[in-house]
Structure formats: structure tokens, C-alpha cells
Fold this sequence. Notes:
There is one protein chain. By secondary structure, the protein is mainly beta. Helices cover about 0% and strands about 40% of the residues. It is built from no helices and eleven strands. Strands 7, 9, 10 and 11 form a four-stranded antiparallel beta sheet that branches. Strands 5-6-8 form a three-stranded antiparallel beta sheet, with no helix packed on it. Strands 1-2 form a two-stranded antiparallel ribbon. A hairpin with a 2-residue loop joins strand 5 (about 75-80) and strand 6. The chain is flat and about 60 Å long.
Amino acid sequence: ECPDCRDLSVLLTEVDLDYPRGVIRDGSRLTYVDDAVQAETGYRYRIVPFTARDQEGAPSSLSRIVYPAPPAPAGLTAEGLDHLVRLQWEAPVLDASLGEVVGYRLYRHADPARVAASPVNRQPLTEPRFEDFGRDNGTPLTYAVSLIVRQQATEVESDLSERVTVTPKAGF
């Protein structure tokens, strides 16, 4: 415990797995976005699971310092080819105070109103382009990309770029 930290007994949110409001659900993964954070401020979260019989499980804690977000990549374009989507975007020019560029995360979803909670790529992409092979022709896909920078010892992700929807097509 830290004497300067706020009271951790204040409930930020409660998530009912049958009716998950206020979270993004992608399979068994739940994502909660705390949009009330301020840059250069530290935050600590405590996640406590409960069973259907209201039995408390082992808690998990997470502490993070929020750094200023880098700019989102711009100019995302997509070209739908035969079982392939070719994407490219503009590499942002960063002020040195925002950190060192690590790479990019690419997100894809079949629903144009959503973006997946997990990126397509496991490791950050080092170039502002990607070829997404093995896509089904005739199935529209929506993409967005984010920039990853290293600020001190922490990787910070930008907001997502503008979304782009594309349909791979046979015959190219």
C-alpha cells in the first residue's frame, strides 16, 4: 500500500459475464477501457473474480504509469486481391519526447462496426505495410493500425487509425 494512493476499496466497475456491459468481449477475452486516466499519472487496478455463488477468487493486481499517447498512424489504405489484402499507411513523425518507435499493431475484424481486441501480428510490424494472406474472397474485412513506442521502459500504444474496409476478390 502507498500512503499517497487513492482508496482501493472504491469499485470502478463490475462485469457480469452473462451481460457484459462496459467491456469489449472477444471470445473469452474481456477488455475494459478506463478513459478517465491522465498522462504522467500512475494507476493501480485490482481485479477480483467471483463465482456464481458469490465466492471471492484470488485477486490480480496491475499497476501502470500512463504516458502521453503517440499519434495514430494516418493514411491507412487497403487493396483487396485474390485471397490477399495489401495494406499500407504513413509512418508518423515523432517528437523525441514521445519515445522511440517500436513498430505497429494491425487489427482486423469481419464486422465493420468493430475492431478485434487482439492484433493480427504477435510481434510489432517494423514497416508501415502488411500483406494479409489467406483471406476469403468476397468476405469484407475491416482493418485499423496503431503505433507502438517505447517511453522509458514501457511500451505505449497509440489510438487506432481510421478504419478501412476491403473485400478480397478473385481475378487479380
